[in-house]
């Protein structure tokens, strides 16, 4: 009955055919390909030369950077400052421990079926901040104290983004619940809070935190600059977080609320045991996306005088000893951010795809 | 039956178990907490300001500012008031936002469509652009353009020159400025006439299509009228327009239009950054129109061009417009990064210099936030009106 | 095979072989979906195609108006061979109407606008005439009162009837139905089938992929059974249902007639 297996006629095989269909299918596509190809060829070569072939990697100081290419020596020599800021050399192991713990807690989240990755994640948002709170500033348990004015570079960037997201999560949950509440006054307060913060740029929030916060506080009470910035970032971020979580709450079908109510659960049990666990799982991609934008936005703290990684680079490229190293510095920072953000966004896209197939049929 | 139920309500529960009473209680409590916190903050602020010798109120807006601003669209000099600095900052913010919105929209749509191109090279380059640009902080990109690119440009004497009219150097971008001569009024009239004519042609073409079914090339004819009619008038009136071409005078250029490097850097960075987000919005908007829609359209015999114009784009635009407006809003907010490179926008001039000089933190911050809040509310108002107008009717 | 005796006004001449499929093959990548199909359909014939899911029946009728490309063999519709040539494809699509499983009405246009879109832009009919014609077809499918509503405001059965009217507005010579009732609730299937039966009685050439065996028995001139991308059996309905030859057909009929 069944005839012998037939192979499809060879149509789209071979590089020539491939190029015909994908690059030169008609006259304007061919023209476009040639133009874009020309631009690409003329720009990639010099770029590669500058980045690698003509670049200086080795040497002892500014005088060794004489080639036509990039002066990576600059980044190499200042790397310690870019990562730790003014954190004392002999105490940097404390920061390294935190980096390692951060990696242990969160890198497995990218690997499916990693044993115990759920527990590592839970450690990442509970135990890790406590350890960090002890280890980084010190001053207890016989650890030498390091004031927050000495923190800087990549380490500060991570601290800002990590605490910002962690602290805004619970506030965001409460705001989201408030905005979906039946009580008009509570709903109104939450709407006003969320919309005001979302409407203003982060810079105004940071300015406010650094200029106005001291005015709000009674005499004798004052916060360090870093804490003020963190308060501003957290309030601002929690408004965005609330909107993400509200999206998740809205996606939970009515039946779930009704079923939980029918089981006799009160409001907080219903939310805590039935609705929120589902909603939060749904919005993980959204939370990851807000994390990415917060991570990029932490660079703004340099405007109020904190040395995050961009601030650290910005302050060193003005060093007269090094000639024209601005581009090298920026490329280095751009690369750091790109690796983080691109990696995390890929992860969230995968997650979205997985959740998508799980919830629609 | 109904009467009975009204009269014989079940005996009410004890107040504490009545959900309405509980709700009222919680709301009163939370309102009280908010008021209390607000009162404490205001009280602290007032006493703090008193102890620092800062007076409250908006009287400072009338005082003389005493500082200069490198770029202003409304007339300004150092003798003018702090209130004036507000307008200078606001107009500068609106200028760079408007320039950014236009450039980002054009670039974003082009890249978004290119991302779906059948040309492999073009599609891949668009993908690389999007993935690189949107994953790098905007502030870094602004720094890159300002400190690494524009300040490394040659000095005015060695300017990069395009056609003897456009000059680019480390002091900015110099463009020839149009100066209208006597008789240019006729050209304005011609433009007005052309617009009226186009409206007329469109109405006529629609009517004719209704009656006879013939399709008139409205778009091409409209473009032709809009361009040709003013041009003809322009030339027959003896070209009543002169160009004020920038020229090197001493150490710098004079004449024409000058875009300061701060503006150019901010504009480029904002446009490139926002375009990468808009491109993704455009792409997913087009992809959101289901395969079934294009198939149905093709099955009805509509060729590709008409399928795109009558079926895909109208549906894609509904998906694209809401996130697009929120990108515009983001762009306006992001323009406040101007502070970092010294472009005199609202935040830099008003929340920066004016606040520092007067110390009126509360008032200045309140005014600045109110401006952004107003812009945001206006944009969401427009959004809601638009959504109501185009919402696809469902049961 | 037999010409339907009632075929009347719509088609004046009964042209033999309005659709000819000769040695047609189709692959998805390396997967051989359609294997050596040969079929000739005369004008005015009503063909029902059935078969288990994944047998390639939908793919087959989608090849007839080139929503899918075939890689080998010939498809000739109304003397026009389907090739890469855009002009051929456009002219075939003008003559072939199609109704989809999921209706695929344009949600941004009203029912009337859905119906008039193609006549106005492709056939260049004046709008008033197009609207008048559309109203006539909407009356034929019994929903003229819904003309100014949007598709989202109609029930599934009503939407599918609009989709049929929309296809008819192009005055096609051939109508393709791709499982038109599969996405409908049971109580709505009948209203759509009634419209299709009426259409069949007016002499329209129809190819219909469906699981509605009652429809096949009353309307079809020929029933085609497909399995694994091949045409397994082809017979008039009396023979097909009464005395199927192939074991695969027998098995299939047993499965669906059990219920």
Question: Notable features of this structure?
Answer:
heterotrimer; A: 361 residues; mainly alpha; MetI-like fold; 2 domains; 15 helices; 69% helix; C: 259 residues; alpha/beta; 6-stranded mixed β-sheet; 4-stranded antiparallel β-sheet; 10 strands; 37% helix; 23% strand; globular
Description:
The complex is a heterotrimer of chains A (361), B (395) and C (259). Chain A has 15 helices and no strands. Chain A has 361 residues and is mainly α. Residues 357-361 of chain A have low confidence and may be disordered. Among the domains of chain B are: 82-154 and 261-394, MetI-like (MetI-like fold), CATH 1.10.3720.10; 181-238. A 4-stranded antiparallel beta sheet of chain B has the order 1-2-3-8. A two-stranded antiparallel ribbon of chain B has the order 4-5. A two-stranded antiparallel ribbon of chain B has the order 6-7. In chain B, strand 1 (160-162) and strand 2 form a beta hairpin. Chain C is an alpha/beta fold and 259 residues long. Chain C has a 6-stranded mixed beta sheet, with helices on both faces. In chain C, strand 7, helix 6 and strand 8 form a beta-alpha-beta unit. In chain C, helix 3 crosses helix 4 (127-140). The two termini of chain C are 30 Å apart. Classes of the chains: A mainly alpha (361), B alpha+beta (395), C alpha/beta (259). Chains A and B meet through helix 2, helix 8, helix 9, helix 13 and helix 14 of A and helix 2, helix 4, helix 5, helix 11 and helix 12 of B.
Strand order of the largest sheet of chain B: 1-2-3-8
CATH superfamily of the largest domain in chain A: MetI-like
Number of domains of chain A: 2
Highest-level CATH class of the domain at 82-154 and 261-394 in chain B: Mainly Alpha
Rough outline of chain A: globular
Unreliable spans of chain B: 1-6
Total strands of chain B: 8
- Architecture per CATH nomenclature, i.e. the level-2 architecture of the domain at 82-154 and 261-394 in chain B: Orthogonal Bundle
The largest chain-to-chain contact, stated as pair and per-chain residue counts, equals:
A-B, 55 and 51 residues
**What do we call the CATH homologous superfamily of the domain at 82-154 and 261-394 in chain B?**
MetI-like
Shape type of chain B: globular
The helicity of chain B comes to 55-70%
Alpha-beta content class of chain A: mainly alpha
Amount of beta strand of chain A: under 5%
Name of the top-level CATH class of the largest domain in chain A: Mainly Alpha
**CATH topology assignment of the domain at 82-154 and 261-394 in chain B:** MetI-like fold
Number of helices of chain A: 15
If you consult CATH, what is the topology of the largest domain in chain A?
MetI-like fold
């Amino acid at each position: 009955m069944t005839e012998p297996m037939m192979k499809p006629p060879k149509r789209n095989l071979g590089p020539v055919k491939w190029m015909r269909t994908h690059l030169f299918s008609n006259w304007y596509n061919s023209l476009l390909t040639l133009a874009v190809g020309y631009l690409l060829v003329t720009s990639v070569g010099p770029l590669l030369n500058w980045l690698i072939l003509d670049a200086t990697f080795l040497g002892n100081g500014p005088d060794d950077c004489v080639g036509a290419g990039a002066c990576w020596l600059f980044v190499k020599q200042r790397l310690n400052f870019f990562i730790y800021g003014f954190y004392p050399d002999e105490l940097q192991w404390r920061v390294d421990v935190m980096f390692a713990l951060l990696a242990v807690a969160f890198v497995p989240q990218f690997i499916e079926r990693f044993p115990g990755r759920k527990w590592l994640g839970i450690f990442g948002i509970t135990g890790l901040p406590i350890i960090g709170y002890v280890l980084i500033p010190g001053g207890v348990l016989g650890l030498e104290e390091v004031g927050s004015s000495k923190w800087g570079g990549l380490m500060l960037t991570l601290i800002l983004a990590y605490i910002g997201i962690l602290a805004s999560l619970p506030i965001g949950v409460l705001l989201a619940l408030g905005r979906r509440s039946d009580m008009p006054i509570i709903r109104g307060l939450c709407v006003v809070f969320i919309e005001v913060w979302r409407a203003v740029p982060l810079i105004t929030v940071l300015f406010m935190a650094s200029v106005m916060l001291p005015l709000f506080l009674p005499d004798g009470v004052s916060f360090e600059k870093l804490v003020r910035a963190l308060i501003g970032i957290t309030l601002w971020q929690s408004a965005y977080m609330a909107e993400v979580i509200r999206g998740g709450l809205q996606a939970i079908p009515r039946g779930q609320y009704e079923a939980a109510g029918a089981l006799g659960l009160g409001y907080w049990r219903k939310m805590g045991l039935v609705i929120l666990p589902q909603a939060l799982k749904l919005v993980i991609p959204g939370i990851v996306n807000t994390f990415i934008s917060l991570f990029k936005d932490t660079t703004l703290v340099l405007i109020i005088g904190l040395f995050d990684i961009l601030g650290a680079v910005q302050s060193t490229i003005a060093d007269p000893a090094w000639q024209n190293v601005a581009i090298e510095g920026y490329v280095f920072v751009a690369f750091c951010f790109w690796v983080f953000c691109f990696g995390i966004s890929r992860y969230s896209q995968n997650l979205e795809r997985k959740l998508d197939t799980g919830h629609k049929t | 039956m109904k009467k009975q139920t009204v009269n014989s309500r079940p005996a009410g529960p004890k107040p504490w178990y009545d959900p309405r009473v509980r709700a009222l209680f919680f709301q009163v409590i939370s309102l009280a907490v908010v008021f209390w916190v607000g009162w404490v903050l205001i009280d602290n602020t007032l006493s703090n300001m008193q102890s620092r010798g800062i007076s409250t109120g908006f009287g400072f807006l009338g005082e003389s500012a005493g500082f200069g601003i490198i770029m202003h669209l409304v007339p300004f000099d150092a003798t003018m008031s702090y209130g004036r600095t507000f307008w200078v900052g606001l107009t500068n913010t609106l200028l760079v936002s408007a320039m950014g919105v236009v450039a980002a929209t054009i670039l974003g749509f082009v890249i978004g469509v290119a991302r779906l191109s059948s040309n492999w090279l073009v599609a891949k380059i668009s993908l690389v652009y999007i993935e690189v640009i949107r994953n790098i902080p905007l502030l870094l990109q602004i720094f890159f353009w300002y400190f690494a690119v524009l300040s490394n440009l040659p000095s005015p004497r060695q300017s990069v020159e395009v056609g003897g009219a456009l000059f680019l150097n480390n002091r900015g971008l110099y463009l020839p400025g149009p100066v209208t001569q006597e008789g240019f009024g006729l050209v304005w009239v011609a433009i007005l006439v052309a617009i009226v004519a186009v409206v007329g042609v469109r109405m006529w073409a629609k009517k004719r299509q209704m009656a006879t079914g013939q399709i008139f090339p409205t778009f091409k004819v409209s473009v032709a009228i809009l361009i040709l009619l003013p041009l003809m008038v322009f030339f027959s009136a003896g070209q009543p327009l002169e160009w004020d071409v920038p020229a090197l005078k001493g150490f710098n250029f004079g004449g024409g239009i000058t875009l300061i490097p701060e503006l150019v850097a901010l504009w480029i960075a904002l446009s490139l950054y926002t375009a990468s987000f808009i491109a993704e919005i455009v792409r997913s908007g087009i992809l959101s129109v289901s395969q079934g829609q294009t198939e149905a359209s093709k099955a009805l015999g509509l060729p590709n061009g008409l399928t795109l114009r009558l079926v895909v784009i109208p549906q894609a635009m509904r998906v694209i417009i809401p996130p697009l407006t929120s990108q515009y809003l983001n762009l306006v907010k992001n323009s406040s990064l101007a502070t970092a490179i010294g472009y005199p926008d609202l935040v830099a001039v008003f929340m920066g210099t004016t606040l520092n000089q007067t110390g009126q933190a509360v008032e200045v911050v309140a005014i600045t936030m109110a401006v952004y809040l107003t812009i945001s509310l206006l944009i969401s108002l427009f959004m809601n009106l638009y959504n109501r107008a185009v919402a696809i009717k469902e049961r | 095979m037999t010409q339907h005796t009632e075929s009347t006004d719509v088609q004046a001449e009964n042209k033999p072989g309005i659709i000819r499929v000769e040695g047609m093959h189709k692959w998805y990548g390396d997967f051989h979906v359609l294997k050596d199909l040969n079929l000739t359909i005369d004008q005015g014939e009503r063909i029902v195609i059935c078969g288990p899911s994944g047998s390639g029946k939908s793919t087959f009728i989608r090849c007839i108006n080139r929503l899918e490309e075939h890689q080998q063999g010939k498809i000739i519709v109304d003397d026009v061979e389907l090739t890469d040539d855009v002009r051929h494809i456009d002219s075939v699509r003008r003559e072939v109407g199609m109704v989809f499983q999921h209706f695929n009405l344009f949600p941004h246009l009203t029912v009337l606008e859905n119906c008039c879109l193609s006549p106005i832009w492709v056939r260049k009919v004046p709008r008033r005439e197009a609207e008048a014609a559309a109203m006539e077809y909407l009356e034929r499918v019994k929903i003229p009162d819904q003309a100014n509503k949007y598709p989202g405001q109609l029930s599934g059965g009503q939407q599918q009837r609009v989709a049929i009217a929309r296809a008819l507005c192009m005055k096609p010579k051939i109508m393709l139905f791709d499982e038109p009732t599969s996405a409908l609730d049971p109580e709505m299937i009948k209203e759509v089938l009634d419209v299709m039966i009426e259409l069949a009685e007016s002499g329209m050439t129809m190819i219909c992929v469906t699981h509605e065996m009652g429809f096949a028995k009353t309307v079809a001139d020929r029933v085609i059974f497909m399995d694994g991308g091949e045409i397994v059996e082809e017979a008039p309905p009396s023979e097909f249902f009464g005395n199927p030859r192939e074991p695969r057909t027998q098995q299939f009929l047993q499965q669906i007639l059990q219920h």
